[in-house]
Amino acid sequence: MISGTECACFAGDFENWMDGRRSAAFAEHLAGCEACRVALTETEAICAEATKLGNEPWEPSPRIWLSLKAQLAAEGIIRAPRWNWRAISARSLPRPALAFAYAAVLLVAGVLVISKANQTEHAAWDKEPEVASSAAVYNTQLTSTEDQTMLAWSEPDPEIAAAIKTDLSLADEHISLCQQTVREQPQSELARDYLNDAYQQKAELLATMVERGVNLQ
Amino acid sequence: MKCTFPVPSISVRALHFVSIALLLAAAPSFANHLEKHFPVQAHPVVVIHNPSGRLTIQSWSKAEVQVVADHASDEIAVDAMQKGNMIDVRTRLLAQSVSPDQLRADYALIVPEDAELQIHNDSGAVQVVRVVGDTAVETATAPVVMEDMGGHLSVKTIGGAVECTRCSGRLEVFSFTGNLRLLQSHNSSVRAFTANGSIFFDSDFLPNGLYMLRTFSGSIAVLFSPGDSFTLQTGSLRGAINNEARLTPSVRAPARSSRFASGMFGSNTQGSARVEVTSFDGTINIRKRE
Fold this sequence. Notes:
Number of strands of chain B: 23
CATH architecture of the largest domain in chain A: Up-down Bundle
Largest sheet of chain A: none
Order of helices and strands of chain A: HHHHHHHHH
Strand content of chain B: over 45%
CATH architecture of chain B: 3 Solenoid
Number of domains of chain A: 2
Number of strands of chain A: 0
Number of helices of chain A: 9
Strand content of chain A: under 5%
Mean pLDDT of chain B: 87
CATH topology of chain B: Pectate Lyase C-like
Largest sheet of chain B: 23 strands, mixed
CATH class of chain B: Mainly Beta
Low-confidence stretches of chain B: 1-10
CATH topology of the largest domain in chain A: Four Helix Bundle (Hemerythrin (Met), subunit A)
Radius of gyration of chain A: 18 Å
Mean pLDDT of chain A: 65
Distance between the termini of chain A: 19 Å
Oligomer: heterodimer
């Protein structure tokens, strides 16, 4: 297994790989690094699903991209010019699998935004089997990401652990409530906005858990 | 005439001694103390990373950053280092397993007014006063208090309350359960979201300013003066809206948008600032100032 530090050396190559510019050095690294292979497979799967959902290739909204970029920078995968306090910490070694698990959650939320944008104003969610089915896929992905995060999570501060657990269940309640509202009011943009917010809340919480795990190592 | 001054008696001296001893005893005892001074140039960047404890930052006119840190436990260490024009302050764990009490380190910093701050302080408390550089704060449960701030302020917290008084510039606040209070501020842009906390906004609406206040289940209160110029768009999917502003035209749930199940849209005076207040099931109160 190759260490996280070595994985970080290939951060730029990872981005290039996803853009179709594939270097031999990174291919060689992938062959020996299971963490990077898993991360790459998951990300490719999500992008493929996202592409299926929309008619055009997946393009994240600026908001999602900024969040994703910030998180990748925070994990040391890409460089951020200003907000880089985690990146400068020698102790905060990147953990590619968790970083990309988080990226997956953000992509889920991003895809929901795209799906919202792609739908016509009068289309009902429950009348669009493809969208509903994709939403189910993303819900499954979200749950899987949460499971991975919970397995790796170790929070020394009971007060913070309790707060995060409470907020995670609240986020789940919000998601459920919003899904119900979207079904009841399929034309309500606000309901869709709040559903997206609820997914974002959960993604942010999972990201916080991952970050704290890294920073307290 | 000869003036004489009374000499303190022994009992008074003893009383002074006991008072000082009591004061010293009341102060928190920190086994480890650090104080460092760093000369800096204009717009220094100060980065603080502290898992737990009280952090206070204020400004002065010197081109210098002063860091004072105290902690009781030997299981952690505090570092303050300079890298060019950046000061990096952080708490390090020296043991694999550290209890929450042992994690605690308190910091008091004094920075130049134009410093840029990047703060991560999970639990405890954060207070920042009179800094006009960009400031980013992340906490888990620590409340954040900011006063007389400028620049771009960004606060992200899980459960900490956020209070911003007399702040200017752009403000972005994101919280899950913390209450947000924005007081006497004059921000050109405010984006505030709390899922379960409440929002209280008692600040100016600047011309062409943008104010987006959003909760999931918490209530939102916005105070305005009759002469304030703003366009208000407000909506709640399941909550009530109480509005005291005389909006023109006062249109309930504009037909052009299905965005709000129950909502209002209209202008107060010229309507130069844009105010968007939304909640999922929280109550929204748009109230005149007393």
